[in-house]
C-alpha cells in the first residue's frame, strides 16, 4: 500500500534513562519545538533524577497544549547528550521499518497538528495533552522511499541554515574580545555626555506605525490597544535614534533600549524617551553594542530604584559610563558586530522558512504516495 495509517503509540517506545553520567546540561522545549537551555535556577538540583536525551531521541511535554495550541515535542540532533526535567517523557521511534524518525518529527511541524493536539487536550485549566491521548494520534505514512525523498529536501535546507550558523560564535567572540580589550584601556564617558533626549511628536498624525521595545532590545509592533488613542501625541523615532524605557529595569534585569535602523520613521508611546548621539566621536551602533552586554544590564539593575516598579530613572541612566576607543576602533568592532547580526538574521529567517516548509513537504509526500497508489 502506498499510504498506511498508524497511531503514534504503535511507532514509539518510552526510554526512561536517568542521569548517572554526571551531565549538568539542563534543557527544556519551547513552543517552536526546539531544545533550549533551561531558564530555571539549577543550583543545588539533583541531576541524577533528570532524564537523558541522546541523539535521535525525543522529549515530550503534554502540559498546556490547549493553552499554547502547540504539541511540545522535539527530536534531539546533537552528539553530546543533555538532560530534561523528570516531568518530560522521553521516547524513541522503534518502528523504523514503517517510519523514519526525522519524518515522524516533521509530521508534528504543522499548525494543523498543533490545533488537533489542542482539540484533544483535556478541559482543565492547564489543558494538558495526556500521554495516552498523544499516543492515540493517528499518522498517515507513505512508503519509506518517499519519506526519505522529502527528508533529503528538508536536510538540504537544514544544512544551508547551519552553514550560516557555523561561524556565528567565532564572530561573536571576535567583537566581544575587542570590547573586553578596550574596556580596560579606553577612556570612559558617561551616557549623559554621549546622548541627549529629543522630543519630536507625530503632530499631523501621518505616521501610524506604532512600536515598542522588548527585553531583547528590539523594536516590535505595539501590543497595546490603540483604538481611540491620539497618535499625534506619540513620539517619532528616526533612523539612528534610540528609544529608551527605564521602567521595570530591576524587575526584568534589563535596560530596555533599542537603536532604530530603518529608513521609514516609527512612533512610540510618550512614556518612552527618544535619544540621539551628540558626540561626533561616538558611533550609535557602538553604544548599542555596549547596551547589548549582560554586564550593563546588571549595572542598570543595580542602579534602579527601590520602588515596586524598580525603575531606572533618566538621571541615573545618564550616569552609566562606557569605554570609548578611537573612531577607527569603534568602526572595526561595529563592522564585525554588523556581520554577526546579518548572519544571525539570515539564520533566523532560514529557520522560520524550514518550519513553514515542513507541512508543504509532508503534503507533497502524501500526494506523491496517493499518485503512486493510483498508478
Descriptive notes:
With 375 residues, this protein is an alpha+beta fold. It folds into 2 domains: 140 residues, DNA methylase specificity domains (Adenine-n6-DNA-methyltransferase TaqI, Chain A, domain 2), CATH 3.90.220.20; 138 residues, DNA methylase specificity domains (Adenine-n6-DNA-methyltransferase TaqI, Chain A, domain 2, Alpha-Beta Complex), CATH 3.90.220. Strand 13 and strand 14 form a beta hairpin. Helix 5 packs antiparallel against helix 11 and helix 6 runs antiparallel to helix 11. The termini are close together. 27% of the residues are buried.
Order of strands, main sheet, comes to: 2-9-6-7
Number of helical elements = 11
CATH class of the largest domain: Alpha Beta
What is the assigned CATH homologous superfamily of the largest domain?
A: DNA methylase specificity domains
Largest sheet: 4 strands, antiparallel
Quaternary status of these chains?
single chain
Calculate Rg over CA atoms: 25 Å
Q: Helix coverage percent of residues?
A: 25-40%
The domain tally reads: 2
| Poorly predicted residue ranges | none
Give the topology.
Layout lengths: L2 E5 L4 E3 L11 E4 L5 E3 L13 E3 L4 E4 L3 H4 L3 E4 L6 E3 L4 E5 L7 H6 L4 H10 L10 H5 L2 E5 L1 H22 L2 H16 L4 E3 L4 E4 L12 E3 L5 E3 L13 E3 L4 E4 L3 H4 L3 E4 L6 E3 L4 E5 L6 H8 L2 H10 L10 H6 L1 E3 L3 H48 L1
Parallel strand pairs: 3-8
Antiparallel strand pairs: 1-10, 2-9, 3-4, 5-8, 6-7, 6-9, 11-20, 12-19, 13-14, 15-18, 16-17, 16-19
Helix pairs in contact: 5-11, 6-11
Quick recap of the structure?
The protein has 375 residues and is an alpha+beta fold. It folds into two domains: 3-142, DNA methylase specificity domains (Adenine-n6-DNA-methyltransferase TaqI, Chain A, domain 2), CATH 3.90.220; 187-324, DNA methylase specificity domains (Adenine-n6-DNA-methyltransferase TaqI, Chain A, domain 2).
Amino acid at each position: 500500500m502506498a499510504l498506511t495509517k498508524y497511531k503514534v503509540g504503535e511507532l514509539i517506545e518510552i526510554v526512561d534513562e536517568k542521569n548517572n553520567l554526571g551531565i549538568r546540561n539542563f534543557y527544556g522545549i519551547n513552543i517552536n519545538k526546539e531544545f533550549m537551555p533551561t531558564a530555571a535556577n539549577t543550583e543545588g538540583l539533583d541531576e541524577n533524577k533528570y532524564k537523558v536525551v541522546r541523539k535521535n531521541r525525543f522529549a515530550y511535554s503534554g502540559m498546556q497544549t490547549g493553552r499554547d495550541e502547540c504539541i511540545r515535542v522535539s527530536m534531539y540532533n546533537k552528539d553530546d547528550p543533555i538532560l530534561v526535567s523528570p516531568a518530560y517523557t522521553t521516547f524513541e521511534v522503534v518502528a523504523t521499518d514503517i517510519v523514519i524518525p526525522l519524518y515522524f518529527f516533521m509530521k508534528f511541524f504543522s499548525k494543523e497538528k498543533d490545533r488537533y493536539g489542542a482539540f484533544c487536550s483535556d478541559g482543565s485549566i492547564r489543558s494538558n495533552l495526556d500521554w495516552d491521548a498523544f499516543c492515540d494520534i493517528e499518522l498517515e505514512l507513505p512508503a519509506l522511499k518517499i519519506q526519505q525523498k522529502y527528508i533529503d529536501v528538508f536536510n538540504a535546507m537544514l544544512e544551508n541554515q547551519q552553514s550560516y550558523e557555523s561561524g556565528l560564535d567565532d564572530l561573536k567572540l571576535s567583537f566581544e574580545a575587542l570590547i573586553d580589550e578596550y574596556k580596560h584601556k579606553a577612556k570612559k564617558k558617561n551616557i549623559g555626555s554621549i546622548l541627549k533626549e529629543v522630543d519630536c511628536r507625530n503632530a499631523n498624525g501621518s505616521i501610524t506605525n506604532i512600536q515598542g521595545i522588548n527585553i531583547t532590545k528590539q523594536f516590535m509592533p505595539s501590543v497595546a490597544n490603540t483604538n481611540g488613542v491620539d497618535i499625534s501625541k506619540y513620539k517619532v523615532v528616526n533612523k539612528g535614534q534610540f528609544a529608551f524605557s527605564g521602567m521595570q529595569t530591576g524587575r526584568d534585569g534589563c535596560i530596555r533600549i533599542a537603536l532604530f535602523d530603518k529608513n521609514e520613521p516609527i512612533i512610540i508611546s510618550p512614556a518612552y524617551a527618544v535619544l540621539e548621539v551628540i558626540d561626533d566621536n561616538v558611533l550609535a551602533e557602538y553604544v548599542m553594542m555596549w547596551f547589548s552586554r549582560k554586564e550593563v544590564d546588571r549595572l542598570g539593575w543595580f542602579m534602579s530604584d527601590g520602588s515596586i516598579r524598580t525603575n531606572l530613572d533618566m538621571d541615573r541612566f545618564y550616569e552609566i559610563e562606557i569605554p570609548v576607543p578611537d573612531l577607527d576602533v569603534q568602526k572595526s568592532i561595529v563592522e564585525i558586530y554588523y556581520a554577526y547580526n546579518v548572519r544571525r538574521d539570515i539564520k533566523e529567517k532560514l529557520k522560520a522558512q524550514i518550519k513553514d516548509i515542513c507541512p508543504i513537504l509532508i503534503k507533497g509526500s502524501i500526494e506523491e504516495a496517493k499518485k503512486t497508489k493510483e498508478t
